[in-house]
Amino acid sequence: MKTRSPRALVTGLMWMQQREAEASLRHTCEQGDGLSRYGWLQHDGENFGVQDIHDHGLLLRTEFVKRPGGEHGGDWSWRVTARPEVGGAGTQASLISLFFYVATDGQGTLQPHVEDKTRLASVTGTTEELGHFKISFLKPTAETGTTPKYASYNYLQAASPGLHRLTDVVKSSLSNRFVFAPPGGPRQRFFAVDTFRGQPGAAEQDPRSHLLLHQVTLQLPCRVEVTFESGSVVGRPGPLAGPALTEELARHVAAFEQRFEETFSLGRKGFAPAQQRFAQAALSNMLGGMGYFHGRSIVQSAHTEHPVPYPEGSLFTAVPSRSFFPRGFLWDEGFHQLLLARWDPALSREVIAHWLDLMNVEGWIPREQILDDEARAKVPPEFVLQHNENANPPTLFLALQQLLGTAPLPYLQRVFPRLRTWYDWYNTTQAGPLPSTFRWRGRDRDPELFLNPKTLTSGLDDYPRASHPSADERHLDLRCWMALASAVMGDMAERLGEPAEPYRHAQRELSDNGLLDRLHWAERLGAFADYGNHSQAVGLEREKVRVVPGQVPPAPRLVRVVRKAPELQFVGALGYVSLFPLLLQLLRPDSPRLPRVLAAMRSEQHLWTPYGLRSLSRASPLYMKRNTEHDPPYWRGPVWININYLAVRALHHYSSHEGPYREQAAQLYRELRANLIANLYRQYAESGYLWEQYSDSTGKGQGCYPFTGWSALVVLVMAEEY
What we know:
Elements: E1 10-18, E2 23-26, E3 37-43, E4 48-55, E5 58-67, E6 75-84, E7 95-103, E8 109-115, E9 119-127, E10 131-137, E11 151-159, H1 166-172, E12 174-180, E13 188-193, H2 200-205, E14 210-218, E15 222-230, H3 243-264, H4 273-288, E16 291-295, E17 298-300, E18 308-309, E19 313-317, E20 328-329, H5 330-343, H6 345-356, E21 368-369, H7 373-376, E22 386-387, H8 396-403, H9 409-429, H10 476-496, H11 501-511, H12 513-520, E23 521-522, E24 527-528, E25 531-534, E26 538-542, E27 558-562, E28 567-570, H13 580-583, H14 594-602, H15 641-655, H16 662-687, E29 693-694, E30 701-702, H17 714-719
Parallel strand pairs: 17-22
Antiparallel strand pairs: 1-2, 1-7, 3-4, 4-5, 5-6, 6-15, 7-14, 8-9, 9-10, 10-15, 11-14, 12-13, 16-19, 17-18, 20-21, 23-24, 25-28, 26-27, 29-30
């Protein structure tokens, strides 16, 4: 836990199952740890959270409650309960060690209070945001409230090198020379932090970067509580611990469940209690995964010869995945806010404002936010650098469209100038070769190494575009995004009394179905499509290596072979991009193109599966094809929930508007909605996670996990909140 500030006090939990041969220290979410499941069961985004972690025979439950008061946010308490997992996989260790830490990063002071030489009983300190405070590590209890038979204590005092390296500091301080010796029980050696190995003098040299850690080792089952008490709270009714904490947790759980039902009405819609708990967990994990980041993006600008660090900035945001993508992504965030805006509109408005505040003077927002050492530690080096001519889908307009009716006028007045600059930046930098066309910049720079050069900036990565990138390309999805942006800008301008006609003019032009046909309807494909310098006759082959006598030949690479020269034409790829005029509801309900779009969606040879719409038609030449030897298909077949959400939302729209295809859209809506809900719930029940994507052939979760970013939109699908 930490405050939303650049140099925050950080508190956290690590744990270790003590086995005879080895011990694995857990801290940050890592897919490589192979936990059978973990995540928030309930989290309201502000006051409390309940999380279960299943770790190879161990069930760890973490709970927290915040109690407002005083001038610095009030008090909070943790409760951590550890017990053997009933029927759990793996061998249960005989001992568990819980590590609770407090760390400063550049400001503030900490003072340890040690009892009996090895037990860190409490920490007092002060920071700019929190004022004076006291953190107490209460003595452990059994779940019944009784004192466990035996507990062993160790503590560590060291310099804090930054949040991203706390795990390494603790690991380097572990020693196996300690002995657990309960009265009348067997003696067992265990790993514990050794204060003498932790270099306590380093903390004294720089008290502003200070780590204090309390380790308690004991037998299962057990429970440990930690309390944070703010020095500015007066008239405190008593410690938020024991029965008082139990009572507060029960009160918050009841309030959460009532608010969840009032917001999403899943009980009233007939969903079973287990399905409602699944939806609660999806929302809670998005809320529980929110983070505050501060630092500098590394940017390659057209105005500089070499990459430069941008000015410091802060970002409060949701993240796609705690384990794999624990940072902000621009196009993901618009989808995140569709859900969060239903739960807490004020929170959603704050997140959007943070994103808009990262805009530079030209109107560019880096699409991937890698702002500090902690975020950078999780990013491959080739993705750290951001290019200021590269865009990302402006999905924040989706959330703003939803928020516009209830957002306070002063808020809209503050964000409108930034949105206007952002909108103008897209029109200036992403313009296409013809009026009212658009083109994503930033495609792969060495196209001959790829079966089809990627377009990371579109968010759809390896989705097939023109085989030979050129300035002649017209990208359908970006045109549709700009139609949405124009509509929202027009609505906002009218509400604020600003000139709206420029936005309305763009909206009319980009929504003109006749112009859309002329620019993007591919009659041979029977679908809307991109346009560019394209050849279908491409493949990957192992290059021939020239052998030089006396030299070790280089390993032959897979390179692209073009068997038919490219020409300007529509790109023969039926998939998600083809659906964008429907997804963003630009097609008229009586459009003559609508029945062919709906037919492609329902065709099992093209996009339809029992698990949702696949991303690329099975008939496409690039369906499930690798892009390089080490680059498996990503948006070339698997089912993605963000696009499927837009599809059910659009089908609901067309089923509720008069038109000749209304009943066809309604039938598709019912089937697609049922398929999505059934598969995501089934995969969650079997695996314990929401996933980045889902197999179009089996429905199984794929990619990284837990992915409670846009996959959590299943909650809105269940609630029919569009």
